[in-house]
Design goal:
By secondary structure, the protein is an alpha+beta fold. It has a single domain (18-176), classed as Inorganic Pyrophosphatase (Alpha-Beta Complex), CATH 3.90.80. 18% of the residues lie in helices and 32% in strands. The chain has helices at 128-140, 158-176, and strands at residues 18-24, 30-35, 40-46, 56-59, 72-75, 86-99, 102-103, 106-111, 150-156. The strands form 2 sheets. A 5-stranded mixed barrel has the order 1-4-5-8-6.
């Protein structure tokens, strides 16, 4: 069975074009996680706060980030996909975040195969409302979980997102060969 984190390339032309493995769906409160030992997407928990994911959310294959997990990616979509779906995506921004004292940044990307997102090339092209919803989601989604503290730390452009992806690829190579 294919392991989507270890067997799939980071992307067809990373960091310009990446693969995003979807775990959580736009509009859902279910927090799914890819379990590489099974390998399958499993239900980790239901979010304690009454919020929902503002876009499809998952990870970038063959990446490893400073928080000790695969690098997170949020793909802006009109219609949600499904857990385990692989989306060919173009990074357009980076949201900096601290989760319980660990750097837990998020790549924001758009699907390459959806012409409704062709005009989004960089941070400035993401509507202010979309950025505000993403920021609000990550600022509040753990509020009702005891002892959890999350802080969003601002937005950076496409160049920063690509640099962070390279960093995550380097960390993956360092830790896993």
């Amino acid at each position: 069975m294919t392991n989507l984190w270890e067997d799939l390339e980071t992307g067809p032309n990373a960091p310009e074009e990446i693969y995003a493995v979807v775990e959580c769906l736009k509009g859902d409160r279910n927090k799914y996680e890819y379990d590489k030992d099974i390998p399958a997407v499993v239900l980790d928990r239901v979010l304690h706060s009454n919020v929902h994911y503002p876009a499809d959310y998952g990870f970038i294959p063959r990446s490893y980030y400073d928080d000790g997990d695969p690098f997170d990616v949020m793909v802006l979509v009109e219609d949600r996909t499904f857990p385990g779906c692989v989306i060919e995506a173009r990074p357009v921004a980076l949201m900096r975040m601290d989760d319980d004292g660990e750097q837990d940044d998020k790549v924001i990307a758009v699907p390459i195969e959806d012409p409704r997102f062709d005009h989004i090339e960089d941070l400035a092209d993401i509507p202010d409302q979309t950025r505000a919803e993403i920021d609000e989601f990550f600022s509040t989604y753990k509020n009702l979980e005891a002892g959890k503290e999350v802080e969003t730390l601002g937005w950076e452009d496409k160049a920063a997102a690509k640099d962070a992806i390279r960093h995550a690829q380097d960390l993956y190579a360092e830790h896993f060969g």
